[in-house]
User: Which sequence fits this backbone?
DNA sequence: ACTACGTCCTGCTTGC
DNA sequence: TGCAAGCAGGACGTAG
């Protein structure tokens, strides 16, 4: 599940390998990944053919290629998306959805099994696509204002985990890093924002930034030069996780068994020993 | 403005 | 052995 660190690894890989290249061919093999592009597959392809890639940027889990005409190719990897750089003769991946030919012996490929991700052309979006104007700055953005975000968190009644996943409040955090940040801060995800102290709100946000920065540092090598066989969900950071996916294992801090509870059609992992549930409010469902 | 929930997708795993 | 349910979950639309 690509969250901010994984997307940043992809962004850096794209910058290294395809920046300054010109797109010569666009082949849309499945319409779904361009569903958000008003031009549809044909318009999408036509708008990109002949364009040179000038910049490669990211905000939260979105990334985009700034093009020489001021437009942008905006992308989101969703759950299972990958942007791969391959030699043109390489066999098609099973879930290859979009192929870009370049003016160099490389192909850019969007591969996505479940197609929650997608690409679109953003007119005039090279600096910041209008389509993601609602996405907040992420914790690794130099202009991220942690104090202001903490203030906003403390005015919201939703549980802190839900707030961490709200991309209009703070972007880039997904289910895994939300659980890790909360474990590190010793705060239960069901605690309402309004019931966090100023220090706790700042601590949770600071831990979110820290865990994602550490994951990024460990993932810096996962985007290989020519043969990018790495998928966005690679396990390079798994060893460093303290909560996510560790149901039943002893907490690394206090030894209590990590618990998994249902949360918004997914799972939350936490330590009942050092992340005490709020007294009032939703009772975590065991199992 | 905020909150909460349903939906989209496919393939692997689990259970009867 | 076969088949269906369960599970993974980010972002968005919608209703309240």
Assistant:
């Amino acid at each position: 599940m690509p969250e901010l660190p994984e997307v940043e690894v992809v962004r850096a890989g794209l910058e290294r390998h395809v920046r300054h290249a010109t797109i010569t061919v666009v082949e849309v093999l499945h319409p779904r990944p361009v569903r958000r592009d008003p031009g549809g597959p044909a318009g999408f392809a036509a708008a990109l053919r002949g364009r040179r890639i000038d910049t490669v940027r990211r905000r939260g889990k979105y990334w985009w290629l700034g093009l020489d005409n001021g437009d942008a190719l905006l992308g989101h990897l969703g759950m299972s998306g990958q942007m791969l750089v391959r030699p043109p003769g390489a066999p098609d991946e099973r879930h290859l959805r979009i192929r870009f030919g370049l003016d160099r012996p490389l192909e850019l490929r969007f591969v996505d099994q479940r197609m929650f991700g997608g690409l679109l052309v953003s007119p005039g979006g090279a600096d910041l696509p209008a389509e993601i104007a609602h996405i907040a700055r992420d914790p690794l953005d130099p202009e991220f204002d942690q104090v202001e975000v903490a203030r906003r968190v403390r005015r919201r009644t939703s549980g802190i985990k839900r707030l961490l996943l709200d991309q209009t409040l703070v972007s880039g955090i997904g289910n895994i890093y939300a659980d890790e940040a909360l474990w590190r801060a010793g705060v239960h995800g069901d605690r309402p924002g309004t019931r966090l102290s100023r220090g706790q709100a700042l601590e949770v946000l600071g831990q979110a930034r820290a865990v994602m920065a550490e994951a990024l540092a460990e993932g810096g090598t996962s985007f290989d030069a020519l043969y990018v066989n790495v998928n966005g969900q690679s396990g390079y950071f798994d060893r460093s996780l303290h909560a996510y996916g560790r149901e039943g294992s002893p907490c690394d801090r206090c030894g209590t068994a990590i618990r998994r509870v249902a949360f918004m059609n997914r799972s939350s992992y936490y330590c009942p020993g050092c992340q005490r549930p709020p007294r009032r409010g939703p009772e975590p469902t065991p199992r």
In short: The beta strands of chain A are 23-28, 53-59, 62-67, 72-76, 81-86, 96-102, 107-112, 118-122, 259-263, 266-270. The mean pLDDT of chain A is 88.
